[in-house]
Amino acid sequence: MIIGILKEQEGEKRVSILPEQAEVLIKNGNTVWLESGAGEAAFASDTAYLQKQVSIEPREKILQQADVLLAYWMLPEAVSGNIRPGAILVGVYQPLFQFSAMKSWAEKQLTSFSLDMIPRTTRAQSMDVLSSQANIAGYKAVLLAANLFPRYFPMFMTAAGSIAPAKVLILGAGVAGLQAIATAKRLGAVVEVSDTRPAVKEEVMSLGAKFIEVEGAADASKAGGYAVEQTEAFKQKQQARLAESVAKSDIIIATAQLQGKQAPLLITEAMLTTMKPGSVVVDLAASTGGNVFGVKNNDTIQLHGVTLVGNSQLPSEMPWDASKMYGKNVMNFLQLIINKEGQLNLNFEDDLVKGCCITHDGAVTNARVADLIK
């Protein structure tokens, strides 16, 4: 098998496979090609890959001859048009939003596996890219907020007076939210957490944070680890309770998302006006609309004296570790579709292979994506 590692689009610093991981693929009987410069932003030079017996090849050759193509994000139409029919693409393609492109890929006879769609089961944990990257995002979000915040995070008792600890509100207690809690606590903040899933209360409290309880949430126990859409009545109760916490908060870290849907708007403009000047919001859900009013994706703005940061790609700001973790996810998945002899083995009886396969044999195979195309 020829596995091609493509250079990401401008602004993305991660690379799908680091040199040490490519070495493992080669030892397992695969040939690995790298587009020149693909790993540079992640501090992995072409030389480092060459030392692991990776071949540096032109982009067009990789697109036209590789059996498996690795790129974190969706490839532009102009690029995907050059890929040979029958090639396999593995990445994070957000197919529930990019369903038109998925239809195009199917028409081009491309087989695609989108790892953000892999079933969130115990067996899939080692391939769960959403979790591995969200962990970094939660950590980085708090550090970013601390850097922008014009006050201390921890409490200080000094001869010049006492400094109260920062009050941090975290929206969503998934992987990103839990890491944000842990990071904010390590920095000395007082932390409150809002989540629609009562089951996460114990985890939140074990990290030293206060859990904001709102009764009447829809059952999310069968949603595979994702949050679910809530009723209007619940949303109203939730916003009333959140309004109290927002008014007391110095920092808001927003992480609440719904798979394949717009992020729920949890913080209104009226709530923002109650925050102290100099307060900071970091919204990790900005790419799907954001949890906070006024947030713009990939932008930092001031609104009512509050700094609003919209950034859904914070893991890219820690490219070495983000690439290392993502690369491990990819390596574990490739073991499901490439056998020990380095030959392709697409077993669609495997729920993980089937679950994240979006296009194959000229058709959109994922039912949810196919429904969006109709």
Layout of helices and strands, plus pairs?
Elements: E1 2-5, H1 19-27, E2 31-35, H2 46-50, E3 55-57, H3 59-65, E4 68-70, H4 77-80, E5 88-91, H5 99-107, E6 111-114, H6 129-148, E7 156-158, E8 161-163, E9 167-171, H7 175-186, E10 190-194, H8 201-206, E11 210-212, H9 232-248, E12 251-254, H10 269-272, E13 280-283, E14 299-303, E15 306-310, H11 319-337, H12 351-356, E16 357-360, E17 363-364, H13 367-373
Number of strands: 17
Query: What class would the helix/strand composition place it in?
Result: alpha/beta
Largest sheet: 8 strands, mixed
Strand order of the largest sheet: 3-2-1-4-5-6-16-17
Helix content: 25-40%
Report the principal-axis shape: globular
Low-confidence runs:
none
Q: Which percent band covers the strand fraction? A: 15-25%
Strand-and-helix sequence, N→C? EHEHEHEHEHEHEEEHEHEHEHEEEHHEEH
What value does the average pLDDT take?
94
Distance between the termini: 35 Å
Counting H and I runs of at least 4 residues, what is the number of helices? 13
Which radius of gyration do the C-alpha atoms yield?
22 Å
Descriptive account of the structure:
There is one protein chain. The chain has 374 residues and is an alpha/beta fold. The chain has helices at 19-27, 46-50, 59-65, 77-80, 99-107, 129-148, 175-186, 201-206, 232-248, 269-272, 319-337, 351-356, 367-373, and strands at residues 2-5, 31-35, 55-57, 68-70, 88-91, 111-114, 156-158, 161-163, 167-171, 190-194, 210-212, 251-254, 280-283, 299-303, 306-310, 357-360, 363-364. The strands form 3 sheets. The protein has an 8-stranded mixed sheet with strand order 3-2-1-4-5-6-16-17, sandwiched between helices. α5 (99-107) packs across α13 (367-373), α6 runs parallel beside α7 (175-186) and α6 (129-148) runs antiparallel to α11 (319-337). The longest helix is centred in the middle third of the chain and has 20 residues, at 129-148. The radius of gyration is 22 Å and the shape is globular.
